[in-house]
Design goal:
The complex is a heterotrimer of chains A (113), B (248) and C (128). By secondary structure, chain A is an all-alpha fold. Chain A is built from four helices and no strands. Chain A has one domain: Fumarate reductase/succinate dehydrogenase, transmembrane subunit (3 helical TM bundles of succinate and fumarate reductases, Up-down Bundle), CATH 1.20.1300. The chains are: A mainly alpha (113), B alpha+beta (248), C mainly alpha (128).
Chain lengths: 113, 248, 128
């Protein structure tokens, strides 16, 4: 039996799971506030732009988004299997493709700031 | 004077020589309140129906023989106390295993998987007896002690949905047993065990449902063992692929 | 003696409905859908940020409304459930042995919840 290549995806899943566990709920809370129209000063463009312009800010944004993507993608692959879909190879390409697309978009947008 | 209760014991029967599929049969058993389900089964066999077939041995949760589904939950018959249940108790063979006869399941798959992880000490180098015994500190012992407690009762396999869906899965007990030896300071066989454990049908079929640890009667925590195996296997993978010059 | 083992079939699609612990597991797994969608929401925010102040205002405006509120609310429930289920199993996945004994599980879990509170507070205060 050949050794699995799952470790690379699982490693990202585990790292992403940890990052999302710590930061995502509060981020969702902030966007919930924005969605509810609370505080128009929330998310001032200048502050956010300044954060993203700094190399450390870029690194943090990249880290959080990319790890979240690959965490969710791998878990989605397993979840789809749990719901009875057996075409694992196809599912893997789709979910990791989505994560890859998101990764690319993030890099492109960050380079524009 | 112990209390007695009339229990309706509904048992899944299956006779391979006469039945095309299993069927339920209900027995009325006068149970003493201190009894366990195994006692009720023994009462049936001794007094009501000698054809009822089931595995059991020690009656004290160390041999691992009397695993059944009791009201849909994998349990040891000798550890399922009558006073925990109402007047109707359903007993079925352990889930995710083929039924041999009545409550007896086919265990060949489990035994083969257990053997495949080389569940024995593989010393790092050959050591003659004259060289003396292996020495181990209490801390080194504690590192793997928990995983030695497995009694091979297979409740974890009955609880694991991935084993039910993907019968090729190596499973909680086998992988925990590999982990037990990998964590043993006297052992050097991890690479050999990884051949079987680090495959798609090995630890990577596990999705950390955690049901195995919830039902384990000996508190081995196989789910924890499997996650630790995943972490170690992932570190292995990165070492192999990013630093191939490092000898293992 | 003839053997004729009987195999009980398990439904590939509805197996998790049979036990509460399986339902809880699937609820935990399904949180990834919310995290995936939310992350793309963040990517859209990043894209709008890159485009300019007007695009960013348009993004904030698009967030408002019942759909935005409902999704973020659902995502909040999902991500909190993810966090709690993640922290609760950390001692199992990464036991810490200090000398002979292992660090108690509830200490490891407690430390995670503590760090979660601190990080969340920092980001919350920075955001508001």
């Amino acid at each position: 039996m050949a050794k699995s290549n799952k470790p690379i995806f699982w490693g990202l899943f585990a790292a992403g799971g940890t990052v999302t566990a710590f930061v995502t709920p509060v981020l969702v809370l902030l966007t919930l506030f924005a969605a509810m129209g609370f505080s128009p000063d929330l998310f001032t463009y200048e502050a956010l732009r300044g954060f993203a312009a700094h190399w450390l800010g870029k690194l943090i944004i990249l880290g959080v988004i990319v790890l979240s993507l690959w965490h969710a993608a791998h878990r989605l692959r397993v979840t789809v299997h749990d719901f009875g879909v057996r075409a694992d190879a196809v599912v893997a390409y789709v979910v990791y493709g989505i994560a890859g697309l998101g990764t690319l978009m993030t890099i492109v947008y960050l380079l524009r700031i | 004077m112990s209390e007695e209760r009339q229990i309706q014991l509904e048992v899944l029967r299956y006779n391979p020589e006469t039945d095309s599929q299993p069927r339920y049969q209900t027995y009325t058993v006068p149970c003493v309140n201190e009894w366990v389900v195994l006692d009720a089964l023994n009462y049936v066999k001794e007094n009501l129906d000698p054809t009822l077939s089931y595995r059991w041995s020690c009656h004290m949760a160390v041999c691992g023989s009397c695993g059944y589904m009791i009201n849909g939950e994998p349990k040891l018959g000798c550890k399922a106390f009558i006073h925990e249940y109402g007047d109707h108790i359903r007993v079925e063979p352990l889930a995710n295993f083929p039924i041999e006869r009545d409550l007896v399941t086919v265990v060949e798959d489990f035994i083969a998987k257990l053997a495949s992880v080389k569940p024995y000490l593989i010393p790092k180098e050959d050591k003659p007896i004259s060289a003396g015994e292996f020495r181990q500190t209490p801390a080194e012992l504690k590192k793997y002690k928990q995983y030695t407690l497995c009694i091979n009762c297979m409740l974890c396999y009955a609880a694991c949905p991935q084993y039910g869906l993907v019968p090729e899965f190596l499973g909680p007990a086998a992988i925990s047993m590999a982990h037990r030896y990998n964590q043993d300071s006297r052992d050097g066989g991890r690479d050999q065990r990884q051949e079987v454990v680090a495959t798609d049908e090995g630890v990577w079929e596990c999705s950390f449902v955690g049901a195995c640890s919830e039902v384990c009667p000996k508190h081995v925590d196989p789910a924890g063992a499997l996650q630790q195996v995943k972490v170690a296997s992932t570190i292995d993978w990165y070492k192999e692929h990013l630093m191939p010059w490092v000898k293992k | 003696m003839s053997r004729k083992p009987y195999v009980r079939e398990v439904s590939k699609t509805t197996w998790f409905l049979s036990q509460p612990r399986y339902k809880r597991y699937m609820a935990r797994e399904v949180t990834c859908v919310f995290i995936l969608i939310y992350t793309f929401l963040l990517i859209c925010a990043l894209g709008a940020l890159a485009k300019g102040p007007d695009a960013f205002q348009a993004f904030l405006h698009a967030l408002r409304g019942p759909l935005g509120v409902l999704f973020n609310l659902a995502a909040l429930v999902a991500t909190v459930y993810h966090s709690m289920s993640w922290f609760d199993v950390t001692p199992q996945a990464m036991p810490i042995q200090r000398g002979e004994e292992f660090v108690p599980g509830n200490v490891i879990v407690g430390a995670h919840y503590g760090a979660w509170a601190v990080v969340s507070l920092i980001i919350l205060i920075w955001g508001i």
